[in-house]
Each structure stands twice: as structure tokens, then as C-alpha cells.
Specification:
Largest sheet: 5 strands, antiparallel
Strand order of the largest sheet: 2-3-1-4-5
Number of strands: 5
Radius of gyration: 22 Å
Shape: elongated
Helix content: 40-55%
Length: 188
């Protein structure tokens, strides 16, 4: 048995239907030609170095691919993987590479799309606090920066201090800035 997985170079998508439409265009005979997306090139080079899809092939008993070579285009890589444990290392590596290269994962079986992102470090969260306190970013910008890590927390944040810092930034970003008091108003 097998399952399909695609990696797409699509940015700024707000709805899964946009990713599905791109995947359909990539699979069609009317796919546009153009310059290779550097992210796809970097992804594919590293993927095939670890899990070859051209001779010399990976040991056939451990090969994650059910169909070779992989379907690679200017803005996509479509993969047909074995529905078995031998695909687990490849899926982990595919996710890591998609995160590193800012690519979107598309699962045509259930129609889901996901753009994996790397968890922020404690140093990054500290810098975000500094940016906020120094007035280099607004509450709204801060909120958008930390929202993915608080509202839909990934398993990637193992450091409780980093997670707590993100939660505090999120709460701070949600609160409204106080209105300035006019000089003729009295405070009671």
C-alpha cells in the first residue's frame, strides 16, 4: 500500500482550497514553465541525497518510495511513499526540510495542507520582548508573531520558559493599549 504527499512552494495561502488548486495545476498537463524555485531545488537535492530516487537506489527493503523517480517541477515535489514503517524516517526528514525551506505540505488523501514552522528559541522570544518594549513593533505585530505558537501549539516547544514567554507575549498582544488621558479630564 502507498500514500501520496506533496511539497509545494506556495506562500500566503489563507485557505486549503488554494493549496489544492495549486496541486491540481501542478499535476495537470497545463502546468506553467519557468524558473525553478530555489526552495524546491534545495529541498529536492537534500531529500535525494538521503533517500535516492535515481540509481544507485536506496536498499530496496528500506526504500520509502513506491514510485521513482519523484515528480519534481519548478514549484513542487510529489512523492508516493510506502504505507509502512520504512517511510517514517523519510516523512520526518521531509517535514524537517519543508520547515527549513518554507514549503507547504499537501496531503491529497484527506485534503489537508500544513506549512510547518520551526519553534522559536528562548533567545528569539527574548528579542521579541525587547522589540515590543523598545517600540520596534506594535501589539498587533507581536500578537501575529506569537499566535501560531499559543493558539495552535506545536509539540516542538519543549522549553517551558520559552512557551511561557510566548504565552505572556500573546496575552499582552491581546490587551488593548490604554487611551491617553486628556488634560481636562479627571481621573477618579
Amino acid at each position: 500500500m502507498s500514500f501520496d504527499l506533496a511539497v509545494l512552494a506556495i506562500d500566503g495561502w489563507a485557505d486549503v482550497s488554494e493549496v489544492a488548486a495549486m496541486a491540481d495545476r501542478c499535476r495537470s498537463s497545463a502546468h506553467i514553465e519557468g524558473e525553478l524555485d530555489d526552495r524546491i531545488v534545495g529541498f529536492y537535492e537534500r531529500l535525494r541525497a538521503r533517500f535516492p530516487d535515481y540509481p544507485p537506489y536506496w536498499d530496496s527493503d528500506d526504500c520509502p518510495w513506491m514510485s521513482m523517480p519523484l515528480d519534481v517541477g519548478i514549484d513542487h515535489v510529489f512523492m508516493c511513499l510506502s504505507f509502512s514503517e520504512r517511510s517514517t524516517p523519510a516523512i520526518t526528514f521531509i517535514t524537517e526540510l519543508a520547515t527549513e525551506h518554507g514549503l507547504t505540505l499537501w496531503d491529497p488523501q484527506d485534503g489537508s495542507a500544513h506549512k510547518p514552522v520551526a519553534a522559536p528559541s528562548r533567545q528569539e522570544v527574548t528579542a521579541w520582548w525587547r522589540d515590543l518594549l523598545d517600540g520596534q513593533c506594535s501589539r498587533e505585530e507581536t500578537f501575529e508573531r506569537v499566535r501560531p505558537w499559543v493558539e495552535d501549539p506545536p509539540d516542538a516547544i519543549d522549553d517551558p520558559i520559552t512557551l511561557m514567554g510566548l504565552q505572556q507575549l500573546h496575552g499582552f498582544g491581546l490587551t488593548a493599549e490604554p487611551e491617553p488621558v486628556k488634560s481636562n479630564e479627571t481621573i477618579s
